[in-house]
Design goal:
Layout lengths: L1 H12 L3 H64 L7 H31 L5 H30 L9 H15 L2 H58 L3 H20 L13 H82 L5 H10 L1 H32 L8 E3 L1 H11 L8 E7 L5 E3 L1 H21 L5 E9 L4 E8 L6 H4 L19 H12 L3 E7 L3 E9 L16
Parallel strand pairs: 2-4
Antiparallel strand pairs: 1-3, 4-5, 5-7, 6-7
Length: about 575
């Protein structure tokens, strides 16, 4: 062994300094390339597996979400048929919606079954829970639609001439709504909620696995780089201290950066030779890695938080709308019968009064006690008030259902006025009595867009306007909503308040992420940023703020009538 070491030493001593450095760099480079290649290959393998798991989990979430939404919509439209029995045209229109969602449900169910059959994954959800879910509920799904069609065949909607026939048809549909099969059909949606939650857990696990794989790959590459630097340092000892000392400093900083993940370190550059260039490059690399890690962390956390928040909001709102819809339909449907029964009772009383000229003293006394004449006038008014209240609740439920559609994949025609009215209805509890809402609706066409996203934009803008009015000490507080055609291809929506206004220095920052003038815990600084993203990127429109301190603020949403992909929106003129 000593002879071998002696021969190697003699061999190294026979080389020139430049040759020794070349050999050292060659060995170090070989180790770095080999280690990096191994790290990339190993990391790519595990990364591909983690990506596949995440893709699989996201595909499961998307399929199960679509299936749950179509089932809820089919059930809701079936229930909406009950109060529309006496309106043939509206009944047919609602029935057409039910047929549409029935087809979507069956198609999505087939996609889920094909997904379970063709995709090869060893997770319990895919191998056990989803096949069991399909096996347990496929027959229920088919039976529900089959029995409902059989019930509807018994109803001749065009020949319901009398109130009794209408009431009988409504009673038939009400009975179907409450049968055991319908309850089992509703339970399918609850099972889907559990499956979606498990899919989200699998997606989070895949995200964690991806991060672990990235760390593994960086560790292998870092080890290879450290090894090459260490070898080069050992060989440099046989040259001069002028080369060794700079390399030592480079090595120390590189070790701290990789081992301690301290990317605030910088290597002092004292020479202009190759080592100085290396130190400068490594400084830039450390800063770049630090910047990329910060950007990646902020983006990933924000996207995950926003996705979870909106998904949870959609499920919660859809569930609330569904739970409220059933009892409201029951109350609304029975108010008609109650009104008819009361009319019959009053007819009977009037008949008795006409037939009996002199009722007994006990009857007269009881009539005076209950104030029969007042009851005859006030009871119909009371029932009509109950009917108006039920109708208002139904409109709120419809607005909640529209708001909960957070997974729209394709644009469709949107009624801007209906969208604004529904948003105001949802925010009704925020609108105080001293705030006046003025609707200046113009003659504008429907636009192609995404309803739920526009709900989000209008909600953010109206909430900001209400917050501004709360800070305003004026007695007259108002929000003016104006819609008009901007040109032949675009429409403009103005949401104007007479609040405190926004300063010029803040106007240039209000659309930045996390910028807010509200107290800590009240504002997130994301509402206007997300709104501009929805308007500009999703609808190829523009969101503009015009404000004056002490006068008020006007937010202008400009949307194209036809949805199209535009690389850069046109500049809005000052005549908006």
């Amino acid at each position: 062994m000593k002879k071998v070491n002696s021969k190697l030493t003699n061999l190294l001593n026979s080389f020139k300094v430049g040759q020794k450095i070349s050999i050292g760099y060659g060995i170090a480079l070989g180790i770095a390339i080999g280690g990096t290649t191994i790290g990339i290959v190993i990391g790519d393998r595990y990364q591909h597996q983690a990506w596949e798991k995440r893709r699989h989990a996201q595909a499961e979430i998307e399929l199960l979400h679509r299936l749950q939404t179509s089932i809820l919509q089919a059930r809701t439209h079936q229930q909406q048929l009950i109060p529309l029995i006496s309106q043939p045209e509206e009944f047919r229109h609602e029935y057409a919606h039910f047929i549409e969602y029935e087809a979507i449900t069956k198609q999505t169910w087939a996609e889920v079954r094909e997904f379970v059959t063709t995709e090869k994954h060893n997770d319990p959800l895919h191998q056990e829970m989803m096949p069991l879910f399909i096996e347990n509920n496929e027959a229920k799904l088919a039976a529900y639609f089959q029995q409902l069609h059989q019930v509807l065949k018994q109803i001749d909607i065009d020949n319901l001439d009398s109130p009794a026939e209408i009431a009988a048809a409504q009673e038939l549909l009400l009975k179907f709504t409450n049968i055991d099969l319908a309850q089992k059909f509703d339970a399918i949606s609850n099972e889907l909620t559990d499956l979606v939650a498990i899919s989200y857990q699998e997606n989070l696990a895949a995200e964690s696995e991806l991060k672990a794989v990235d760390k593994l790959r960086l560790a292998i590459i870092g080890i290879s780089i450290l090894s090459s630097i260490a070898i080069a340092t050992i060989l440099a000892i046989f040259t001069t201290r002028a080369i060794a000392n700079p390399l030592k400093r480079v090595t120390e900083v590189a070790q701290k950066a990789t081992k301690e993940s301290n990317f605030d370190l910088q290597i002092p550059v004292t020479t202009q030779d190759e080592i100085g260039i290396l130190a400068t490059s490594l400084n830039q690399l450390i800063q770049r890695v630090k910047q990329l890690l910060l950007e990646q962390k902020a983006t990933s956390e924000q996207q995950l938080l926003q996705s979870e928040k909106m998904s949870s909001l959609g499920r919660m709102v859809a569930g609330i709308a569904h739970e409220i819809n059933n009892p409201v339909n029951f109350i609304y449907g029975n108010l008609i019968h109650a009104s008819e029964y009361i009319d019959d009772l009053f007819d009977l009383i009037h008949t008795y009064q006409n037939e009996t000229s002199q009722p007994s003293l006990s009857v007269q006394k009881k009539s005076e006690e209950i104030d029969l004449e007042f009851l005859a006038v006030d009871l119909p008014k009371l029932l009509n008030s109950m009917k108006i209240g039920s109708e208002r609740v139904r409109q709120i439920v419809l607005s909640l259902k529209n708001f909960s559609r957070l997974d729209e994949a394709e644009p469709h025609f949107v009624d801007i006025h209906a969208c604004l009215d529904s948003t105001l209805l949802i925010l009704n509890n925020r609108i105080k009595k001293d705030v006046k809402i003025v609707r200046n609706y113009g003659d504008i066409p429907k636009i192609e867009g995404y309803t739920s996203s526009l709900y989000q934009v209008f909600t953010n803008l109206l909430v900001n306007a209400l917050d501004a009015l709360e800070e305003n000490q004026q007695k007259s507080k108002q929000i003016i909503i104006t819609t008009k055609s901007f040109d032949l291809e675009r429409v403009a929506i103005h949401i104007t308040d007479n609040g405190c206004g926004i300063s010029r220095q803040n106007q240039v920052k209000i659309f930045n992420n996390f910028f807010t003038t509200k107290p800590v815990g009240v504002g997130t600084g994301l509402g206007l940023a997300i709104s501009r993203q929805i308007v500009a990127e999703k609808h190829q429109g523009q969101l503009i703020c015009q404000s004056e301190v002490g006068v008020g603020t006007d937010f202008i949403v400009v949307l194209p009538i036809t949805h199209q992909v535009i690389e850069k929106p046109a500049v809005l003129q000052a005549t908006v």
